[in-house]
Amino acid sequence: xxxxxxxxxxxxxxxxxxxxxxxxxxxxxxxxxxxxxxxxxxxxxxxxxxxxxxxxxxxxxxxxxxxxxxxxxxxxxxxxxxxxxxxxxxxxxxxxxxxxxxxxxxxxxxxxxxxxxxxxxxxxxxxxxxxxxxxxxxxxxxxxxxxxx
Length: 149
Hints:
Blueprint: H1 29-38, H2 43-53, E1 61-64, H3 67-81, E2 97-100, H4 123-130, E3 135-139
Parallel strand pairs: 2-3
Antiparallel strand pairs: 1-3
Helix pairs in contact: 2-3
């Protein structure tokens, strides 16, 4: 099984380049879909790669799922959708995602850049997870991200 392209120097892990091209790892949605379709990559393989690449000390993360949780989600996705023909899989099959801190995720505190609260999970998040998209964590949001005009 092939791995993802190496990270280029001087680009924050997991972020797009300054030129707005593909993500720092050179990974695009069409690339992932093609590799999943040929079997060159699986959600479990990608989860292992992410677990090795993600920086737990990176200031961008409020919450980063444990490696075991990432792998468990990837296994569940493969068990549910992996036997389907590639064209029958959900469009975002196996594509990991993170959310900003002002979006509620079940069991994870949301502090919206201020005091922590626990709310109901957002429907969009539940839909993504139910349709084969593994949740990887929450990203820091500024205290001004929830300001109203």
